[in-house]
Amino acid sequence: MLNWLKSDSVESKEILAAVTGVQLAQELLQRLTGQDKVDAYKRECIHAVAAYVKNNPRASQGEINKEVEKQVLLFAARVQALESAPLF
Predict the structure, then answer these.
(1) DSSP-based three-state secondary structure for 86
(2) Residue 48's closest CA among 20, 32, 69?
(3) Which residues, in sequence order, are CB contacts of 29 under 8 Å at separation 6+?
(4) How far is the C-alpha of 68 from the C-alpha of 83, rounded, in Å?
(5) DSSP symbols for 24-64
(6) Residuewise pLDDT in 10s, the chain (88 residues)
(7) Dihedral over Cα of 5, 9, 12, 16: its sign
(8) Would you give the distance in Å from CA 49 to the centre of its chain?
């Protein structure tokens, strides 16, 4: 975009149009596949486990394992729900 603003040439406009098209296509693909939501759910799962460990420094390995299992099952259920949800 900076190149187009500086030169205002046809070639710069075409490059800007191509880059914008690729960005739109990528966004559409992420929305259709739900990958952006899967990534968000994954981050939430990791943060929840980290928060549990931080807030429970004396938790036994069994308790930590139980919390990890709970968070992974929640993550899996949320992803499963995405698969069965309508696209629009």
Answers:
(1) coil
(2) 69
(3) 35
(4) 23
(5) HHHHHHHHHHTHHHHHHHHHHHHHHHHHHHHH-TT--HHHH
(6) 666 667 777 787 788 788 888 989 988 887 777 788 999 999 999 999 999 999 999 999 999 999 999 999 999 999 999 877 665 5
(7) positive
(8) 18
- How many helices (H) and strands (E) would you count in the chain? 4, 0
Query: Does pTM surpass 0.70?
Result: no
Say how far apart CA 19 and CA 13 lie, in whole Å: 10
Q: Residue 37 is which amino acid?
A: K
* Distance, CA of 47 to CA of 68 (rounded, Å): 11
For the record, the structure tokens of 67 come out as 């919390």
Alpha-carbon Rg for the chain, nearest whole angstrom, is 21
Report CA dihedral (58, 64, 66, 69) to the nearest 10 degrees.
Answer: 160
Contact, 19 vs 4, CB < 8 A? Answer: no
